[in-house]
Amino acid sequence: MAQVLCLGVLFCAQTHEPLKISERTRQPNLNVSTSRKGRLNRLLKPHKLNIEVSPHRAVSAVRLMRIELGGAFADLLNDKGKGSGDNEMAYVERTLGFCTRELKDQDLRLVTDIVGGTIRWRRYLDHLIISLCHDKNTYKSLEPLLLQILRIGFYEIVKLNMPPYAVVDENVRLAKTALRPGAGNMVNGILRKLVLLKEGKSLPLPKVEGDDRAQARALATLYSHPVWMVRRWTKYLGQEEAINLMIWNNNDPSFSLRANHRRGVSRAALVTRLNELKVPHQISLHLQEFVRIKTGLQTVIQAGLLREGLCSVQDESAGLVVSVMDPQPGESIVDCCAAPGGKTLYMASHLNGQGMVFAVDINKGRLRILKETAKSHHVDGVITTIHADLRTLVNNSPVKSNKVLLDAPCSGLGVLSKRADLRWNRKLEDMEQLKNLQDELLDAASLLVNPGGVLVYSTCSIDPGENDERVAAFLLRHPEFHIDPVDRYVPADFVTDNGFYLSNPVKHSLDGAFAARLIRAL
Ligand SMILES: C[S@@+](CC[C@H](N)C(=O)[O-])C[C@H]1O[C@@H](n2cnc3c(N)ncnc32)[C@H](O)[C@@H]1O
Protein backbone atom coordinates (compact mmCIF):
# COMPACT_ATOMS: atom_id res chain seq x y z
CA MET A 1 0.00 0.00 0.00
CA ALA A 2 2.81 2.38 0.94
CA GLN A 3 4.40 1.69 -2.44
CA VAL A 4 1.29 2.64 -4.30
CA LEU A 5 0.86 5.72 -2.18
CA CYS A 6 4.18 6.88 -3.66
CA LEU A 7 2.59 6.84 -7.08
CA GLY A 8 0.67 9.99 -6.33
CA VAL A 9 3.82 11.85 -5.27
CA LEU A 10 6.02 10.56 -8.07
CA PHE A 11 3.66 11.60 -10.80
CA CYS A 12 2.42 14.93 -9.48
CA ALA A 13 -0.94 13.55 -8.42
CA GLN A 14 -3.62 16.18 -8.14
CA THR A 15 -4.66 15.31 -4.60
CA HIS A 16 -6.82 14.62 -3.82
CA GLU A 17 -43.32 29.43 -16.60
CA PRO A 18 -44.25 29.72 -19.59
CA LEU A 19 -43.87 33.19 -21.25
CA LYS A 20 -46.88 35.47 -21.21
CA ILE A 21 -47.56 36.63 -24.72
CA SER A 22 -49.61 39.71 -25.40
CA GLU A 23 -49.80 39.19 -29.16
CA ARG A 24 -48.59 36.51 -31.50
CA THR A 25 -44.99 37.03 -32.63
CA ARG A 26 -44.68 40.23 -30.63
CA GLN A 27 -42.29 40.71 -27.72
CA PRO A 28 -43.29 38.57 -24.78
CA ASN A 29 -44.27 40.06 -21.47
CA LEU A 30 -41.08 40.88 -19.60
CA ASN A 31 -42.63 40.18 -16.18
CA VAL A 32 -41.36 36.66 -16.35
CA SER A 33 -39.29 35.46 -13.48
CA THR A 34 -36.25 33.55 -14.60
CA SER A 35 -32.90 32.84 -13.14
CA ARG A 36 -31.23 31.58 -16.25
CA LYS A 37 -28.92 34.02 -17.93
CA GLY A 38 -29.62 32.74 -21.44
CA ARG A 39 -33.35 33.13 -21.04
CA LEU A 40 -32.95 36.60 -19.58
CA ASN A 41 -30.71 37.67 -22.46
CA ARG A 42 -33.26 36.43 -24.89
CA LEU A 43 -35.99 38.39 -23.13
CA LEU A 44 -33.96 41.57 -23.23
CA LYS A 45 -33.03 41.24 -26.90
CA PRO A 46 -35.66 41.90 -29.56
CA HIS A 47 -36.77 38.55 -30.91
CA LYS A 48 -39.49 36.88 -32.92
CA LEU A 49 -41.81 34.60 -31.04
CA ASN A 50 -43.91 32.15 -32.99
CA ILE A 51 -46.58 30.29 -31.07
CA GLU A 52 -47.93 28.37 -34.05
CA VAL A 53 -44.89 26.12 -34.38
CA SER A 54 -44.89 23.28 -31.85
CA PRO A 55 -41.93 23.83 -29.51
CA HIS A 56 -40.92 20.17 -29.26
CA ARG A 57 -40.56 19.91 -33.06
CA ALA A 58 -38.55 23.13 -33.35
CA VAL A 59 -36.26 22.06 -30.48
CA SER A 60 -35.95 18.50 -31.82
CA ALA A 61 -35.05 19.68 -35.34
CA VAL A 62 -32.39 22.05 -34.03
CA ARG A 63 -30.99 19.54 -31.57
CA LEU A 64 -30.80 16.90 -34.31
CA MET A 65 -28.88 19.30 -36.54
CA ARG A 66 -26.47 20.11 -33.73
CA ILE A 67 -25.90 16.43 -33.00
CA GLU A 68 -25.33 15.61 -36.66
CA LEU A 69 -22.96 18.51 -37.10
CA GLY A 70 -21.07 17.45 -33.99
CA GLY A 71 -22.14 20.14 -31.53
CA ALA A 72 -24.10 18.14 -29.00
CA PHE A 73 -24.58 14.69 -27.55
CA ALA A 74 -27.82 12.80 -27.87
CA ASP A 75 -27.77 11.55 -24.33
CA LEU A 76 -26.71 14.43 -22.13
CA LEU A 77 -29.20 16.04 -19.83
CA ASN A 78 -28.67 18.95 -17.50
CA ASP A 79 -30.44 19.22 -14.17
CA LYS A 80 -33.45 20.83 -15.85
CA GLY A 81 -33.55 17.85 -18.19
CA LYS A 82 -33.12 20.23 -21.12
CA GLY A 83 -30.32 18.65 -23.06
CA SER A 84 -26.69 19.55 -23.16
CA GLY A 85 -27.19 23.22 -24.03
CA ASP A 86 -27.69 25.91 -21.43
CA ASN A 87 -30.72 27.23 -23.15
CA GLU A 88 -32.34 25.13 -25.82
CA MET A 89 -34.58 27.93 -27.05
CA ALA A 90 -31.64 30.24 -27.63
CA TYR A 91 -30.27 27.65 -30.08
CA VAL A 92 -33.66 27.49 -31.76
CA GLU A 93 -33.76 31.26 -32.15
CA ARG A 94 -30.23 31.47 -33.46
CA THR A 95 -30.77 28.63 -35.92
CA LEU A 96 -34.34 29.24 -37.08
CA GLY A 97 -34.60 32.99 -36.62
CA PHE A 98 -37.55 32.70 -34.24
CA CYS A 99 -38.37 31.07 -30.93
CA THR A 100 -41.47 29.26 -29.77
CA ARG A 101 -43.12 29.09 -26.38
CA GLU A 102 -41.01 27.48 -23.65
CA LEU A 103 -41.02 23.72 -23.37
CA LYS A 104 -43.32 22.12 -20.81
CA ASP A 105 -42.46 18.80 -19.18
CA GLN A 106 -44.50 16.81 -21.70
CA ASP A 107 -42.73 18.65 -24.56
CA LEU A 108 -39.40 17.70 -23.00
CA ARG A 109 -40.38 14.05 -22.93
CA LEU A 110 -41.36 14.30 -26.60
CA VAL A 111 -38.04 15.93 -27.49
CA THR A 112 -36.17 13.08 -25.78
CA ASP A 113 -38.28 10.45 -27.57
CA ILE A 114 -38.10 12.12 -30.96
CA VAL A 115 -34.41 12.99 -30.91
CA GLY A 116 -33.34 9.56 -29.61
CA GLY A 117 -35.69 7.68 -31.91
CA THR A 118 -34.93 9.72 -35.03
CA ILE A 119 -31.21 9.16 -34.52
CA ARG A 120 -31.58 5.43 -33.89
CA TRP A 121 -33.90 4.93 -36.88
CA ARG A 122 -31.92 7.19 -39.23
CA ARG A 123 -30.96 4.58 -41.79
CA TYR A 124 -34.52 3.17 -41.89
CA LEU A 125 -36.10 6.65 -42.12
CA ASP A 126 -33.67 7.78 -44.81
CA HIS A 127 -34.41 4.65 -46.82
CA LEU A 128 -38.12 5.60 -46.78
CA ILE A 129 -37.39 9.26 -47.55
CA ILE A 130 -35.17 8.31 -50.53
CA SER A 131 -37.86 5.91 -51.77
CA LEU A 132 -40.46 8.66 -51.65
CA CYS A 133 -38.32 11.42 -53.18
CA HIS A 134 -38.27 11.60 -56.98
CA ASP A 135 -34.69 10.32 -57.05
CA LYS A 136 -31.57 9.95 -54.89
CA ASN A 137 -30.29 13.37 -56.02
CA THR A 138 -33.35 15.10 -54.55
CA TYR A 139 -32.55 13.41 -51.22
CA LYS A 140 -28.86 14.31 -51.47
CA SER A 141 -29.65 17.97 -52.18
CA LEU A 142 -32.01 18.34 -49.19
CA GLU A 143 -30.76 21.08 -46.92
CA PRO A 144 -29.90 19.86 -43.38
CA LEU A 145 -32.93 21.40 -41.64
CA LEU A 146 -35.38 20.12 -44.26
CA LEU A 147 -33.93 16.63 -43.92
CA GLN A 148 -34.35 16.73 -40.12
CA ILE A 149 -37.96 17.92 -40.43
CA LEU A 150 -38.71 15.06 -42.82
CA ARG A 151 -37.02 12.53 -40.53
CA ILE A 152 -39.06 13.80 -37.57
CA GLY A 153 -42.29 13.56 -39.56
CA PHE A 154 -41.47 10.04 -40.80
CA TYR A 155 -40.50 8.90 -37.31
CA GLU A 156 -43.67 10.33 -35.74
CA ILE A 157 -45.89 8.66 -38.35
CA VAL A 158 -44.18 5.30 -38.77
CA LYS A 159 -42.66 4.58 -35.36
CA LEU A 160 -44.63 6.70 -32.87
CA ASN A 161 -47.94 6.11 -34.67
CA MET A 162 -48.99 9.70 -33.97
CA PRO A 163 -52.18 10.98 -35.67
CA PRO A 164 -50.80 11.29 -39.21
CA TYR A 165 -52.57 14.37 -40.53
CA ALA A 166 -51.73 16.41 -37.42
CA VAL A 167 -48.08 15.38 -37.90
CA VAL A 168 -48.21 16.46 -41.55
CA ASP A 169 -49.72 19.88 -40.69
CA GLU A 170 -47.27 20.55 -37.87
CA ASN A 171 -44.17 19.64 -39.83
CA VAL A 172 -45.36 21.57 -42.90
CA ARG A 173 -45.82 24.64 -40.66
CA LEU A 174 -42.31 24.24 -39.23
CA ALA A 175 -40.77 23.91 -42.72
CA LYS A 176 -42.69 26.93 -44.04
CA THR A 177 -41.82 29.13 -41.08
CA ALA A 178 -38.21 28.06 -40.64
CA LEU A 179 -37.36 27.78 -44.36
CA ARG A 180 -39.85 28.94 -47.04
CA PRO A 181 -43.30 28.04 -48.43
CA GLY A 182 -41.81 25.72 -51.09
CA ALA A 183 -40.11 23.62 -48.38
CA GLY A 184 -43.48 23.29 -46.64
CA ASN A 185 -45.06 22.11 -49.90
CA MET A 186 -42.36 19.48 -50.31
CA VAL A 187 -42.82 18.18 -46.74
CA ASN A 188 -46.57 18.10 -47.36
CA GLY A 189 -46.23 16.04 -50.57
CA ILE A 190 -43.78 13.48 -49.17
CA LEU A 191 -45.50 13.02 -45.80
CA ARG A 192 -48.90 12.56 -47.45
CA LYS A 193 -47.43 9.87 -49.72
CA LEU A 194 -46.02 8.17 -46.61
CA VAL A 195 -49.39 8.26 -44.82
CA LEU A 196 -51.09 6.59 -47.81
CA LEU A 197 -48.43 3.88 -48.04
CA LYS A 198 -48.59 3.21 -44.31
CA GLU A 199 -52.39 3.01 -44.36
CA GLY A 200 -52.14 0.58 -47.29
CA LYS A 201 -49.49 -1.46 -45.36
CA SER A 202 -47.16 -1.09 -48.35
CA LEU A 203 -44.13 0.78 -47.05
CA PRO A 204 -41.25 0.28 -49.52
CA LEU A 205 -38.96 -1.86 -47.31
CA PRO A 206 -36.20 -4.26 -48.42
CA LYS A 207 -36.58 -8.05 -48.24
CA VAL A 208 -34.01 -10.17 -46.42
CA GLU A 209 -32.86 -12.32 -49.35
CA GLY A 210 -29.86 -13.02 -51.56
CA ASP A 211 -26.27 -13.58 -50.44
CA ASP A 212 -24.86 -12.69 -46.99
CA ARG A 213 -23.96 -9.17 -48.07
CA ALA A 214 -27.44 -8.46 -49.50
CA GLN A 215 -29.10 -9.88 -46.39
CA ALA A 216 -26.88 -7.78 -44.13
CA ARG A 217 -27.75 -4.64 -46.13
CA ALA A 218 -31.49 -5.38 -45.86
CA LEU A 219 -31.24 -6.10 -42.12
CA ALA A 220 -29.15 -2.97 -41.63
CA THR A 221 -31.99 -0.92 -43.16
CA LEU A 222 -34.84 -2.76 -41.45
CA TYR A 223 -33.22 -2.51 -38.01
CA SER A 224 -31.32 0.71 -38.70
CA HIS A 225 -27.69 -0.16 -37.95
CA PRO A 226 -24.48 0.14 -40.01
CA VAL A 227 -23.94 -2.81 -42.37
CA TRP A 228 -20.54 -3.63 -40.84
CA MET A 229 -22.12 -4.13 -37.39
CA VAL A 230 -24.79 -6.43 -38.80
CA ARG A 231 -22.14 -8.52 -40.58
CA ARG A 232 -19.97 -8.71 -37.48
CA TRP A 233 -22.83 -9.72 -35.17
CA THR A 234 -24.20 -12.21 -37.67
CA LYS A 235 -20.75 -13.80 -37.75
CA TYR A 236 -20.33 -13.91 -33.96
CA LEU A 237 -23.93 -14.42 -32.81
CA GLY A 238 -25.91 -15.79 -35.76
CA GLN A 239 -28.66 -13.88 -37.56
CA GLU A 240 -31.43 -14.38 -34.99
CA GLU A 241 -29.32 -13.14 -32.06
CA ALA A 242 -28.02 -10.24 -34.16
CA ILE A 243 -31.62 -9.19 -34.88
CA ASN A 244 -32.53 -9.46 -31.18
CA LEU A 245 -29.56 -7.29 -30.30
CA MET A 246 -30.60 -4.63 -32.83
CA ILE A 247 -34.17 -4.70 -31.47
CA TRP A 248 -32.73 -4.16 -27.98
CA ASN A 249 -30.57 -1.26 -29.20
CA ASN A 250 -33.62 0.40 -30.78
CA ASN A 251 -35.76 0.24 -27.64
CA ASP A 252 -35.90 3.06 -25.14
CA PRO A 253 -33.02 2.46 -22.73
CA SER A 254 -33.55 1.67 -19.07
CA PHE A 255 -31.27 3.09 -16.42
CA SER A 256 -30.07 2.02 -13.01
CA LEU A 257 -29.53 4.23 -10.01
CA ARG A 258 -26.99 3.40 -7.33
CA ALA A 259 -27.85 4.58 -3.81
CA ASN A 260 -24.86 6.36 -2.33
CA HIS A 261 -24.47 4.89 1.12
CA ARG A 262 -21.46 7.15 1.81
CA ARG A 263 -24.03 9.96 1.87
CA GLY A 264 -26.15 7.86 4.22
CA VAL A 265 -28.60 6.89 1.48
CA SER A 266 -29.65 3.26 1.64
CA ARG A 267 -31.46 1.59 -1.23
CA ALA A 268 -34.62 1.60 0.90
CA ALA A 269 -34.30 5.39 1.31
CA LEU A 270 -33.79 5.80 -2.44
CA VAL A 271 -36.87 3.67 -3.09
CA THR A 272 -38.90 5.87 -0.72
CA ARG A 273 -37.72 8.97 -2.61
CA LEU A 274 -38.61 7.38 -5.98
CA ASN A 275 -42.07 6.54 -4.60
CA GLU A 276 -42.51 10.17 -3.53
CA LEU A 277 -41.45 11.30 -7.01
CA LYS A 278 -43.79 8.67 -8.55
CA VAL A 279 -40.94 7.16 -10.56
CA PRO A 280 -41.68 3.47 -11.30
CA HIS A 281 -38.73 1.29 -10.33
CA GLN A 282 -37.53 -2.25 -9.72
CA ILE A 283 -34.97 -3.50 -7.24
CA SER A 284 -31.82 -4.90 -8.86
CA LEU A 285 -31.63 -8.69 -8.71
CA HIS A 286 -27.83 -8.62 -8.67
CA LEU A 287 -26.54 -5.65 -6.67
CA GLN A 288 -27.85 -4.49 -3.33
CA GLU A 289 -27.41 -0.71 -3.82
CA PHE A 290 -29.03 -0.62 -7.28
CA VAL A 291 -32.56 0.21 -8.49
CA ARG A 292 -33.72 0.03 -12.12
CA ILE A 293 -35.92 2.66 -13.75
CA LYS A 294 -37.40 2.59 -17.24
CA THR A 295 -38.90 6.08 -17.22
CA GLY A 296 -38.60 9.10 -14.96
CA LEU A 297 -34.88 9.84 -15.23
CA GLN A 298 -35.68 13.49 -15.97
CA THR A 299 -37.78 13.62 -12.78
CA VAL A 300 -34.85 12.23 -10.79
CA ILE A 301 -32.50 14.79 -12.37
CA GLN A 302 -34.89 17.69 -11.80
CA ALA A 303 -35.35 16.66 -8.15
CA GLY A 304 -31.59 17.16 -7.69
CA LEU A 305 -30.81 13.61 -6.51
CA LEU A 306 -27.78 13.34 -8.77
CA ARG A 307 -26.53 16.88 -8.17
CA GLU A 308 -26.64 16.35 -4.41
CA GLY A 309 -24.70 13.08 -4.72
CA LEU A 310 -27.51 11.02 -3.16
CA CYS A 311 -27.35 8.52 -6.00
CA SER A 312 -25.66 8.06 -9.36
CA VAL A 313 -26.81 6.81 -12.71
CA GLN A 314 -24.81 3.63 -13.16
CA ASP A 315 -25.71 0.56 -15.14
CA GLU A 316 -25.70 -2.68 -13.19
CA SER A 317 -23.38 -4.10 -15.85
CA ALA A 318 -20.75 -1.56 -14.72
CA GLY A 319 -21.54 -2.28 -11.06
CA LEU A 320 -20.80 -5.96 -11.70
CA VAL A 321 -17.33 -5.04 -13.04
CA VAL A 322 -16.71 -3.53 -9.60
CA SER A 323 -17.92 -6.83 -8.07
CA VAL A 324 -15.22 -8.56 -10.15
CA MET A 325 -12.67 -6.13 -8.63
CA ASP A 326 -14.02 -6.96 -5.14
CA PRO A 327 -12.63 -3.80 -3.46
CA GLN A 328 -12.12 -4.09 0.32
CA PRO A 329 -11.57 -1.47 3.06
CA GLY A 330 -7.88 -0.62 3.48
CA GLU A 331 -6.84 -1.58 -0.05
CA SER A 332 -4.91 0.58 -2.50
CA ILE A 333 -6.30 0.22 -5.97
CA VAL A 334 -5.09 1.69 -9.24
CA ASP A 335 -7.89 2.55 -11.68
CA CYS A 336 -5.95 3.03 -14.93
CA CYS A 337 -8.61 4.63 -17.16
CA ALA A 338 -10.80 6.11 -14.49
CA ALA A 339 -12.70 9.10 -15.84
CA PRO A 340 -15.46 10.15 -15.60
CA GLY A 341 -15.32 7.92 -12.54
CA GLY A 342 -18.35 5.62 -12.37
CA LYS A 343 -16.29 2.66 -11.23
CA THR A 344 -13.78 4.71 -9.21
CA LEU A 345 -16.59 6.18 -7.12
CA TYR A 346 -18.29 2.85 -6.55
CA MET A 347 -14.97 1.20 -5.60
CA ALA A 348 -14.19 4.14 -3.29
CA SER A 349 -17.55 3.71 -1.55
CA HIS A 350 -16.55 0.10 -0.73
CA LEU A 351 -13.42 1.30 1.11
CA ASN A 352 -15.45 2.76 4.00
CA GLY A 353 -13.00 5.61 4.36
CA GLN A 354 -9.90 3.35 4.56
CA GLY A 355 -7.50 2.87 1.64
CA MET A 356 -7.09 4.71 -1.65
CA VAL A 357 -8.16 4.56 -5.26
CA PHE A 358 -5.57 6.11 -7.57
CA ALA A 359 -7.60 7.35 -10.51
CA VAL A 360 -5.44 7.75 -13.63
CA ASP A 361 -6.75 9.27 -16.85
CA ILE A 362 -5.35 11.06 -19.87
CA ASN A 363 -8.33 13.41 -20.10
CA LYS A 364 -8.03 16.36 -17.74
CA GLY A 365 -11.60 17.59 -18.21
CA ARG A 366 -13.13 14.21 -17.46
CA LEU A 367 -10.82 13.82 -14.47
CA ARG A 368 -12.08 17.17 -13.17
CA ILE A 369 -15.65 15.83 -13.33
CA LEU A 370 -14.49 12.78 -11.36
CA LYS A 371 -12.97 14.99 -8.65
CA GLU A 372 -16.09 17.12 -8.32
CA THR A 373 -18.38 14.09 -8.18
CA ALA A 374 -16.11 12.47 -5.58
CA LYS A 375 -16.68 15.50 -3.33
CA SER A 376 -20.45 15.41 -3.66
CA HIS A 377 -20.36 11.65 -2.99
CA HIS A 378 -18.20 12.16 0.13
CA VAL A 379 -15.50 9.79 -1.15
CA ASP A 380 -12.88 12.42 -2.11
CA GLY A 381 -10.77 11.43 0.93
CA VAL A 382 -10.05 8.03 -0.60
CA ILE A 383 -9.47 9.08 -4.22
CA THR A 384 -6.27 10.52 -5.67
CA THR A 385 -6.50 11.66 -9.28
CA ILE A 386 -3.49 11.38 -11.58
CA HIS A 387 -3.57 13.12 -14.92
CA ALA A 388 -1.30 11.03 -17.17
CA ASP A 389 -1.01 8.80 -20.18
CA LEU A 390 -0.88 5.36 -18.59
CA ARG A 391 1.69 4.21 -21.18
CA THR A 392 4.27 6.79 -20.13
CA LEU A 393 3.26 6.87 -16.48
CA VAL A 394 4.31 3.26 -15.97
CA ASN A 395 7.75 3.82 -17.56
CA ASN A 396 8.67 6.06 -14.66
CA SER A 397 7.02 3.97 -12.01
CA PRO A 398 8.79 1.37 -9.92
CA VAL A 399 5.65 1.09 -7.74
CA LYS A 400 3.11 -1.66 -7.83
CA SER A 401 -0.36 -2.44 -6.48
CA ASN A 402 -2.25 -5.57 -5.53
CA LYS A 403 -5.35 -4.50 -7.44
CA VAL A 404 -5.35 -2.78 -10.80
CA LEU A 405 -8.39 -2.05 -12.96
CA LEU A 406 -8.05 -1.30 -16.65
CA ASP A 407 -11.48 -0.20 -17.89
CA ALA A 408 -10.22 0.31 -21.40
CA PRO A 409 -11.37 2.74 -24.08
CA CYS A 410 -13.55 0.62 -26.39
CA SER A 411 -16.10 0.69 -29.18
CA GLY A 412 -19.02 0.93 -26.75
CA LEU A 413 -20.89 -1.70 -28.76
CA GLY A 414 -22.50 -2.89 -25.51
CA VAL A 415 -24.14 0.45 -24.77
CA LEU A 416 -25.80 1.35 -28.08
CA SER A 417 -29.29 1.52 -26.54
CA LYS A 418 -28.16 4.41 -24.33
CA ARG A 419 -25.86 6.11 -26.85
CA ALA A 420 -28.30 6.69 -29.71
CA ASP A 421 -25.73 8.33 -32.03
CA LEU A 422 -22.77 6.03 -31.32
CA ARG A 423 -23.67 3.41 -33.95
CA TRP A 424 -23.32 6.06 -36.69
CA ASN A 425 -20.06 7.46 -35.34
CA ARG A 426 -18.25 4.13 -34.97
CA LYS A 427 -16.43 2.84 -38.04
CA LEU A 428 -15.04 -0.62 -38.72
CA GLU A 429 -11.55 0.92 -38.94
CA ASP A 430 -11.92 2.10 -35.30
CA MET A 431 -11.92 -1.52 -34.15
CA GLU A 432 -8.32 -2.15 -35.25
CA GLN A 433 -7.08 1.09 -33.67
CA LEU A 434 -8.94 0.32 -30.44
CA LYS A 435 -7.50 -3.18 -30.25
CA ASN A 436 -3.96 -1.80 -30.59
CA LEU A 437 -4.63 0.76 -27.87
CA GLN A 438 -6.16 -1.91 -25.62
CA ASP A 439 -3.04 -4.08 -26.04
CA GLU A 440 -0.74 -1.17 -25.23
CA LEU A 441 -2.79 -0.23 -22.17
CA LEU A 442 -2.93 -3.84 -20.97
CA ASP A 443 0.86 -4.10 -21.24
CA ALA A 444 1.23 -0.83 -19.33
CA ALA A 445 -1.31 -1.75 -16.63
CA SER A 446 0.38 -5.13 -16.08
CA LEU A 447 3.56 -3.31 -14.98
CA LEU A 448 1.66 -1.91 -12.02
CA VAL A 449 0.58 -5.30 -10.65
CA ASN A 450 2.45 -6.83 -7.70
CA PRO A 451 3.38 -10.51 -7.82
CA GLY A 452 0.23 -12.32 -6.65
CA GLY A 453 -1.82 -9.21 -7.43
CA VAL A 454 -4.85 -8.98 -9.69
CA LEU A 455 -5.39 -7.12 -12.95
CA VAL A 456 -9.00 -6.71 -14.06
CA TYR A 457 -9.45 -5.88 -17.74
CA SER A 458 -12.92 -4.57 -18.62
CA THR A 459 -14.82 -2.97 -21.50
CA CYS A 460 -18.37 -1.87 -22.26
CA SER A 461 -18.23 -3.90 -25.45
CA ILE A 462 -19.70 -7.25 -26.42
CA ASP A 463 -17.22 -7.72 -29.25
CA PRO A 464 -14.93 -10.76 -28.80
CA GLY A 465 -12.20 -8.84 -30.65
CA GLU A 466 -12.05 -6.35 -27.78
CA ASN A 467 -12.68 -8.89 -25.03
CA ASP A 468 -11.66 -12.59 -25.07
CA GLU A 469 -9.24 -12.07 -27.96
CA ARG A 470 -7.43 -9.21 -26.19
CA VAL A 471 -7.07 -11.34 -23.05
CA ALA A 472 -5.80 -14.32 -25.06
CA ALA A 473 -3.23 -12.12 -26.86
CA PHE A 474 -2.18 -10.60 -23.52
CA LEU A 475 -1.66 -14.01 -21.92
CA LEU A 476 0.57 -15.04 -24.83
CA ARG A 477 2.72 -11.93 -24.29
CA HIS A 478 2.57 -12.25 -20.49
CA PRO A 479 2.81 -15.88 -19.38
CA GLU A 480 3.36 -14.58 -15.84
CA PHE A 481 -0.43 -13.94 -15.69
CA HIS A 482 -3.23 -16.51 -15.51
CA ILE A 483 -7.03 -16.34 -15.52
CA ASP A 484 -8.87 -16.22 -12.18
CA PRO A 485 -12.45 -17.32 -12.96
CA VAL A 486 -15.00 -14.75 -11.84
CA ASP A 487 -17.61 -17.19 -10.51
CA ARG A 488 -16.84 -16.17 -6.91
CA TYR A 489 -17.69 -12.55 -7.66
CA VAL A 490 -20.73 -12.43 -9.99
CA PRO A 491 -23.86 -14.60 -10.46
CA ALA A 492 -23.24 -17.76 -12.47
CA ASP A 493 -25.46 -16.50 -15.28
CA PHE A 494 -22.82 -13.87 -16.13
CA VAL A 495 -19.83 -16.23 -16.23
CA THR A 496 -18.54 -17.33 -19.64
CA ASP A 497 -16.97 -20.71 -20.47
CA ASN A 498 -13.55 -19.01 -20.23
CA GLY A 499 -14.24 -17.79 -16.69
CA PHE A 500 -14.87 -14.16 -17.72
CA TYR A 501 -17.75 -11.84 -16.80
CA LEU A 502 -20.04 -10.92 -19.70
CA SER A 503 -23.39 -9.16 -19.51
CA ASN A 504 -25.51 -9.70 -22.58
CA PRO A 505 -28.07 -6.95 -23.34
CA VAL A 506 -30.67 -9.36 -24.75
CA LYS A 507 -30.23 -12.05 -22.10
CA HIS A 508 -29.79 -9.85 -19.02
CA SER A 509 -31.64 -6.65 -20.05
CA LEU A 510 -28.53 -4.68 -19.10
CA ASP A 511 -25.82 -2.91 -21.07
CA GLY A 512 -23.18 -5.20 -22.50
CA ALA A 513 -19.96 -5.32 -20.48
CA PHE A 514 -16.98 -7.63 -20.09
CA ALA A 515 -14.35 -8.25 -17.41
CA ALA A 516 -11.49 -10.70 -16.97
CA ARG A 517 -9.61 -11.28 -13.68
CA LEU A 518 -5.93 -11.97 -14.29
CA ILE A 519 -3.53 -12.94 -11.51
CA ARG A 520 0.20 -12.28 -11.67
CA ALA A 521 2.26 -15.27 -10.54
CA LEU A 522 4.11 -14.89 -7.24
C1 LIG B 1 -14.20 3.56 -20.90
S1 LIG B 1 -13.62 5.09 -20.37
C2 LIG B 1 -13.43 4.80 -18.65
C3 LIG B 1 -14.74 4.87 -17.89
C4 LIG B 1 -14.52 4.86 -16.40
N1 LIG B 1 -13.75 3.73 -15.95
C5 LIG B 1 -15.85 4.88 -15.66
O1 LIG B 1 -16.28 3.83 -15.12
O2 LIG B 1 -16.47 5.95 -15.59
C6 LIG B 1 -11.96 5.05 -20.91
C7 LIG B 1 -11.11 6.17 -20.38
O3 LIG B 1 -9.77 5.90 -20.80
C8 LIG B 1 -9.09 7.13 -20.89
N2 LIG B 1 -7.85 6.91 -21.64
C9 LIG B 1 -7.70 6.69 -22.98
N3 LIG B 1 -6.42 6.52 -23.28
C10 LIG B 1 -5.71 6.62 -22.11
C11 LIG B 1 -4.35 6.56 -21.79
N4 LIG B 1 -3.42 6.35 -22.73
N5 LIG B 1 -3.98 6.73 -20.50
C12 LIG B 1 -4.90 6.97 -19.55
N6 LIG B 1 -6.22 7.06 -19.80
C13 LIG B 1 -6.63 6.88 -21.08
C14 LIG B 1 -10.12 8.02 -21.57
O4 LIG B 1 -9.82 9.38 -21.34
C15 LIG B 1 -11.43 7.57 -20.91
O5 LIG B 1 -11.77 8.42 -19.85
UniProtKB/TrEMBL annotation:
Where is this protein primarily located?
cytoplasm
Q: Name one GO biological process term.
A: rRNA processing
Q: Does the keyword Methyltransferase apply?
A: yes
SUPFAM superfamilies in the record:
NusB-like, S-adenosyl-L-methionine-dependent methyltransferases
Name the positions where S-adenosyl-L-methionine binds.
337-343, 361, 389, 407
Keyword Cytoplasm in record: yes
Q: Name one Pfam family in it.
A: NusB
Which keywords describe this protein according to UniProt? Cytoplasm, Methyltransferase, RNA-binding, rRNA processing, S-adenosyl-L-methionine, Transferase
**Residue positions of the active site:** 460 (nucleophile)
GO annotations of cellular component type: cytoplasm
Instruction: Indicate where this protein resides in the cell.
Output: Cytoplasm
GO terms assigned for molecular function: RNA binding; RNA methyltransferase activity
Q: Where is the SAM-dependent MTase RsmB/NOP-type domain?
A: 245-521
User: Which InterPro entries does its entry note?
Assistant: MeTrfase_RsmB-F_NOP2_cat (IPR049560), MeTrfase_RsmB-F_NOP2_dom (IPR001678), NusB-like_sf (IPR035926), NusB_RsmB_TIM44 (IPR006027), RCMT (IPR023267), RCMT_RsmB-rel_pln (IPR023268), RsmB-like_ferredoxin (IPR054728), SAM-dependent_MTases_sf (IPR029063)
Q: Which family does it belong to?
A: Belongs to the class I-like SAM-binding methyltransferase superfamily. RsmB/NOP family.
Family matches, as PANTHER family: NOL1_NOP2_SUN FAMILY PROTEIN _ ANTITERMINATION NUSB DOMAIN-CONTAINING PROTEIN, NOP2 YEAST -RELATED NOL1/NOP2/FMU SUN DOMAIN-CONTAINING
Protein name in UniProt: Ribosomal RNA small subunit methyltransferase B
The organism is Quillaja saponaria
